[in-house]
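One such given next:

>
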Amino acid sequence: MQRDLATMEQTRRELAAKVGRLSKTAREQSALAEQARTLAEQFRGEYQRAKDEGTFPIEVRGAAYTEPQVRSQVSLLLAEAEGYESSLTEIESVQTAAEEKIEELAVRINRTETQLAALATKRELLRARQLTTAGEELLAQVDELMTGNRQAIDANPVGTVRELLARGSSKPTGRATDSKVEAFLTAKQEPKNDAAESDVEASVEVTGANFPPAFPRQSQSQVDGKGKPRAAKGQKANRTNPIFQQS
């Protein structure tokens, strides 16, 4: 584009110079054609007067012309006038085409200069868009790779001791809710029909609360061979009172 711009600017300068020379030539051709017709008219006036008066030769521009010479001179002057006028028409046509070309070159040069001025910015924008697209593709590839790695790691049950302990540990459930506490406190305890507890005294009522019997249920190991209860070590056999009494 820079080379084309230089060529177009040089062509425009050369065309402008040639148009200037054409304009000068056109002015000269126009002046010569006008002078040729003026001289031809002058010869025509002298010719007509000499023809009427029979006074040939005639004197025009300091020279004497016979009748045939007048005809020959007027013929040359008319031919030159027509030639100048024909050249002038051609020059004007070429000049018009050159001026149109100069205008076209001026517009194209202006557009080229504008494109050249914006080309650097457009190139940087294109480069930025390419980098952005490449960066997004790279990030997508990295994200896909990391996702695949994580899935592969999570799917593998083999782990270190710390990972196994952390994997097997249960999270604390937290404190019981108020509704569960209320339901537990207000629930009525069903009576037990166990025959082994028939000989145990009822629990002592303390401020509206029921406490369990003082002695737990006797297991099979606490019964001797005669079917009588056997006292455990460190415990009296005949103790029937509760662990504490209400004062």
Notes: Residues 195-229, 231-238, 242-247 have pLDDT under 50 and may be disordered. The first helix runs from residue 2 to 53. Helices lie at 2-53, 67-155, 161-168, 178-186. The longest strand covers residues 58-60.
